[in-house]
Amino acid sequence: MSTKIHLEQYLKTTKAKGASIPIGLQELLIAVANTCTTLSDEVAQGALIGLLGSAGTGNVQGEVQQKLDVIANDLLIEGVQECKALAGLASEEMELPMPVQGTGDYLLLFDPLDGSSNIDVNVSIGTIFSILHKQNPIAALQNSDFLLSGRHQAAAGYVVYGPQTTMALTLGDGVVMFTLDKATGQFVLIKDRVEISPTTKEFAINMSNMRHWAEPVRRYVLECLDGVTGTRKKDFNMRWIASMVADVHRVLSRGGVFMYPWDQREPNKPGKLRLMYEANPMSFLVEQAGGASTNGKQVIMDIQPQDLHERVSVMLGSKEEIERLQSYHA
Ligand code: AHG
Ligand code: MN
Ligand code: MN
Ligand code: MN
């Protein structure tokens, strides 16, 4: 059997577009991975350590926080404090960004715990992270520094806490996956060129919202439901885990389309999912694996954010399906 490659080794030896990974970025990624290792252990214990249930507090998104939302957020903040290249961080769970070193090359944004509604029912959840290049590393951190499009990401990834704890990572030159070896505490490389097939017969969407969707999304899904005798001439299958991290992990693993589109329940909100913590990092991964992402009008990573907690309509996955969805929106 060939030797196992650990995350640390991988970061030290790999080249992204011909260049070595800067030490500051390596340190930051290791710090995030170590925190996720701790989180993975805690998630696995659940009720045994009193981790389930609501925290009784609310967040800036207008959501009730689960205990694990708060714990994951605190662990991540603590875990990256020593990272010398990290100027500051921002989280789904905090209204304002938080300075770390104040100056430095990178900004870290995260959804500390994705899939809150699945915590108490023992279904896969995860952590999503996005690392932006700070535009002026030596200038003191300002909140507006975070308002960069997804094109400014130096790295992005997620860790899914499922039957296995698996990390997907992109440094802008393809996508790799690591699985946590719980015996050694090391993330071990399991896939080094993740590719999403351009075609698929699988889609993921919360079907209970169908009556609220815009016409292009209704049309797309109804055509999928028509099956082999319909315009699409194939039988589609549907999967919905309700943790974006797990739904996107499936798309990266075997293709498919994930959608959380705008809907008319909240006509003035562009969507439910967050651009900076969810849509951008996932779009970076999907694009790097040969897939695509859109909000219907624009490629997600091209959107210039106006607000840290900005929301967005999300459709991502197999390229031909995303192109079809885009054409229905044109
Ligand atoms: P979060 O737990 O970070 O707030 O995100 C939840 C999101 C996302 O993970 C998932 O795709 C979606 O909410 C699920 O929404 P439904 O409740 O409509 O299924
Ligand atoms: Mn939330
Ligand atoms: Mn989330
Ligand atoms: Mn979350």
- Architecture per CATH nomenclature, i.e. the level-2 architecture of the largest domain: 2-Layer Sandwich
Compute the average pLDDT: 97
Q: CATH superfamily assignment of the largest domain?
A: Fructose-1,6-Bisphosphatase, subunit A, domain 1
**Oligomer category:** single chain
The succession of helices and strands, N to C, reads HEEHEEHEEEEEEEEEHEHEEHEEEH
- Sheet-strand content, in percent, reads 25-35%
Q: What ligand species are in this complex?
A: 2,5-anhydro-1,6-di-O-phosphono-D-glucitol, manganese (II) ion
Question: How many helical stretches?
Answer: 7
Question: Strands of the largest sheet, in order across it?
Answer: 6-5-7-8-9-10-11-12
Structural class: alpha+beta
How much helix is in the residues? 25-40%
Number of strands: 19
**Which fold name is given in CATH as the topology of the largest domain?**
Fructose-1,6-Bisphosphatase, Chain A, domain 1
Distance between the termini: 51 Å
Number of domains: 2
Descriptors:
28% helix; alpha+beta; globular; binds 2,5-anhydro-1,6-di-O-phosphono-D-glucitol; Fructose-1,6-Bisphosphatase, Chain A, domain 1; D-Maltodextrin-Binding Protein, domain 2; five-stranded mixed β-sheet; carbohydrate metabolism; magnesium ion binding; binds manganese (II) ion; eight-stranded mixed β-sheet; FBPase_class-1; single chain; metal-binding; 330 residues
What does this structure look like?
There is one protein chain. The chain has an 8-stranded mixed sheet, sandwiched between helices. A 5-stranded mixed sheet has the order 14-13-15-19-17, sandwiched between helices. The chain has 2 domains: 7-191, Fructose-1,6-Bisphosphatase, subunit A, domain 1 (Fructose-1,6-Bisphosphatase, Chain A, domain 1, 2-Layer Sandwich); 202-329, 3-Layer(aba) Sandwich (D-Maltodextrin-Binding Protein, domain 2), CATH 3.40.190.80. It is 28% helix and 26% strand. The chain is built from 7 helices and 19 strands. Bound molecules: 2,5-anhydro-1,6-di-O-phosphono-D-glucitol and manganese (II) ion (3 copies). One manganese (II) ion binds next to loops. Homotetramer.
